Structure formats: structure tokens, C-alpha cells
Amino acid sequence: MNNVTVVSHPLIQHKLTMLRDKNTSSKDFRELVREIAMLMAYEVTRNLPLKDIEIETPIAKTTGKALAGEDIAIVPVLRAGLGMVDGMLDLIPNAKIGH
After folding, report:
1. Does the model's pTM come out above 0.85?
2. Which end is more exposed in the chain, N or C (fewer Cβ atoms within 10 Å of the end residue's Cβ)?
3. Mean per-residue pLDDT for 6-22?
4. CA atoms of 59 and 86, how far apart (whole Å)
């Protein structure tokens, strides 16, 4: 199962419990889905390739890191996955969205 990522981060576990609570309002549910998606995006992008780029700071030139390779696409599994797109876009605003 090389293409499966198990996310067991404590914050995600905590938010999943809140999400599953029958007393969670619709508004809170949507906010939790967005937050969980953002945390998941952070975890699953951990190994994206980087490249060195030269930038100029206010003090001097330096070498920084930028994402290398292909464009990133987010393809949600309809309909449940649609609520997760915005949370992922918060971290990867230039990602393309597919359906």
C-alpha cells in the first residue's frame, strides 16, 4: 500500500471526534472539515520535491526552496470530498481542481 497515507496526527484525531459528535452544528461541521483537510494537506505534501532558487532579501541574496516538478491538482471524490477542497486550497492556492 505505497500510495496510501495513514494520518494519525493528534489534532486530526481530536477534530474527527468533534466532527462525529451528534451535537456538532452544521456550521461547526463545515469548519471542522476545512480544518481537517488543511491538516491532511500538510501531512500528504510532506515529501513533495523541492528545488533551490535564488532570491533577494532586504539584506542580501540567498538561496531558498520552492516546489519543484509538476503542477498540483486536487481531485475530490464527489460529494463528500468537495467540502475538503477549500482547506487544501488554503495551503496550496495555485492547485488546479478536477472533478
Report:
1. no
2. N
3. 92
4. 36
